[in-house]
Protein 1
Amino acid sequence: MTTETTTTEQKQKPKVIYQRGASEAVYGFGLIGACVYYFSHATTIVVGIIGFFKALVWPAILVFEALKFLHL
């Protein structure tokens, strides 16, 4: 009887499917674009490395500057 209960419980568990949105693709293209921009304007290796880290956080910088512009 224990195996029947376990089998019944396993059949009743809902299957959870995680779907990802298009935001990951937008961030990925933005990251590539920001890297190209910062690397093309870099004059030294150090500036290029700093540009890479800026490219990682460009959405936060964008939102910060937008809120600063809107005075919020």
Protein 2
Amino acid sequence: MAKLTTIKPRLAGLVPRLGYVVADERSRSRYRDATQGWRAWYKTARWQKLRWSILTRDLFTCKMCGKIEGQTSQLVCDHIERHGGDEARFWAGPFQTLCKPCHDRDKQKIERRHG
């Protein structure tokens, strides 16, 4: 009779097809940073300066819901038009200020709907 062998577990190395677990957001972010080079632009001093100028221009007010947010970590400098990794479009804008909930929920829903 043949001897049965076990298959090594390989689930840890598979990339999820349906999305990531919310608690695993750090891993998802690291994966996206590694595979999408343009994400590094968000970590530059140039982007931080541009972001600050947009937030102050819009008086720290979300353009979707009108909420005034004093905690700048809860505000996003959003590209109104998707840049798709194009460096010229990334830096040129146009930009708007959104609160994090509007950006992460409403704006993403709009972008998914319109491709």
Protein 3
Amino acid sequence: MLKDFIGRELNIGDVVAFPNTHGALILARIEEFSKYQLKCTPLHGHEHDHVATVRCYAQSSAKLDQNEVTMYLLKRDHDE
């Protein structure tokens, strides 16, 4: 069982936030687990439209609440 930065259990389908190599945050949905890493599909956004999947360590991610994800998606669609 993998856990996020604050110890919450992660499941396939959860949305997590984690830093990319440039320090910006990526929001992505968990698709698969490996021993220590998550394989995720980024939520659509200008900065990662060209990336099909990304990997991150579970300990460097933070699980997001459904309400937080909904607010992000609504705000993003309005800003574009």
